[in-house]
Structure formats: C-alpha cells, structure tokens
Give the backbone structure.
Amino acid sequence: MISQLWDLLIAFARASNLGFGGGPAVIPLIKIEVVERYHWMTNAEFTDALAVGNALPGPIATKLAGYVGYQEAGWLGALVANIGVILPTALAVILLAQFLMKYSNSPVLKGMLKGVRPVVVVLIAQTAFEMGIGSFPNLTTWGIALATVVSLYWLKLHPALIIILSMAFGLLVFR
Amino acid sequence: MPGKLWDLFIAFTRASNLGFGGGPSLIPLIKAEAVDRYQWMDNEEFADSLAIGNALPGPIATKMASYIGYKVAGWLGALAATIGTVAPTVIIVVLLGSLITKYSNSPELKAMLQAVRPVVVVLVAETAYDMGKKSFPTSSTWGIAVVTVFLLYFSNIHPAFIIVASMLFGWAMYGRTKK
C-alpha cells in the first residue's frame, strides 16, 4: 500500500512537473505513467477516464489524478496523486511570487514584466484559437459566440451565467 | 481572516465548477472573480501572475489559485484557493466516475458541451484582448508579440522558453531606465 501511494505520488509529480502549458499539456505525460510505465490502466480505460474528466468542469490534470489514484488506492490514493500534481508547482509559484513581491518596485523586475506581457497575451490568444478549432461545427455555434460577445460587452453578464445559459440552450437545440 | 479564506474558497470553487475545457478555460472565470468581483488585483497584476504561472510546469488553474490565494491571505489562502479549485470536481469524478462513463456519450451531455465550447472560446479570447489593452505601451512590445507568434508557429521552441527569453529581453531593454 505504502509503495503504491509512493508510486502514485512520483508518477503524478513527474507528469505535472514536465508539462508546460497547463493541465491539457500534462495529459499525454499522465498517460505515459499510467498506461505504459505502471500499467495501472489499459489504453481504453484511460480514454474512458479522460472522457469522464472532460464531461466535468475544472482542471483536467487533477480530475485524472483523482480518478486514477482512487482506482489504485482508494481515497488516500486520490489525495496522494493530487498532491503530486499540485504541490511542487504550487510551492514553486508561491516562492517565485514572494521573491517578485519583494522586488516589485525594482526597475529590473518592471522591465522583465513589460517584456513578458506581450508573450502572455499571444499565448492566451493562441489558446483561444486552438480551442476554437473544432468548436464551430455549424452556424448556430457562431450565433452562440456572437451572443456571448453581446452578453459580455453590452449586457455585462457574468461569464458564469453565460456558461450556464449556453448549456441550457444546447440541451434544447442540439439534442 | 476567516472571511477572506472563505471568499477565496468560494471564488475558486465557482470558477472551477463552471470552467469546461480544462485549466486554461478557467482563466477568464478566475479573472472575473479576482479582478472584477473581489478586486484582489488589477488587470496588469493578473497578467503578471499568469506570466509567472505559464513559466512553470503543471496545471495553470492550481498555480493561479496558489499565487492569488497566497497574495490575499498567505499560505492558508493558497491552500483554501487550491482546495476550492480541486476538491469539488475531484470528489465528483471519484464518486460518479462509473456513472459518468455511462453518460459521457449521451446526446444531452454532448449537446451541452457543444453549446458551451463557443462561449469558452470567446471568454478566453476576451481575456487575451483585455490583457492586451495595457500590454503594448511601445512599438517594441508589438515586436515581442510578432516574434512570439513567429516562434510559436514556425519553430519548435517551447513556450516556457519564450517566456524566460522575453523576460531577459525586457530586463535588457526596459530594465535599466529609471521610471
């Protein structure tokens, strides 16, 4: 049991710490650990786990860690796998933040942030672009996008409300 | 202090439970909570925290939660925000895993996910636009953006490397002039 928990911790910590680009970038690395290295699941089982994860909201890497960890070692397994995913990078970001806050008035840091902001804007725009591929299979989906823009800029609706409304709309129209 | 922790927990639970499409789809929702609703930070600080998060590996949503939580209420804040991000959906996936497997191919779920995807795309694009408004004070910052697009699409250079390189460039270009 202990060694199983240790394996879960190491497997998910390794996947998380090598995946740049958020949770979705971690998926193939989790698959390598779960399917190929430790044989906790077959390819088909992993695909099922991914389908379950994608059907639910929230970060995907932590849902996979919860699902796989629970199957292998119960609630403790789910907890340990999630600690592996979250803790190292959360600690790193906090330590970096502490360091940056200390120097937040230095011209050096201000220069670095000025240099990096355009990169972040491009990266986020790229995420939108890539999510957009395949998200507009018909005219109605374009209509939803247009309605979202109107709701955001003119009606000032909270994004959460727009998400709920769109899902209700989909249930009525696309089924 | 307990009030702040509760706010952090609720804000990140709300963002996480309405974000379909993995961590990156949560970014606009986290921004709506942290910048618009609770005003824990302004637009630029949010962009900075995103830059720092993107420079490190791992899921982006939990890094944002730790960063913002820590900034608002220290280590406990980081914990409360991260638990809010992770716990609800992890518990659901464990409890309802087999049930959801059955329904993950249902036409109802597919219909809802098809309708929510365009919304997520617009929300993420809006985040880029919003952050872009103040991120281009000079023409050299536009140059950085063009170089970034070029490197992303025509080379195999890793985004984390582009982030670090742009920070070094910013240090050299803008870091020495007194403000």
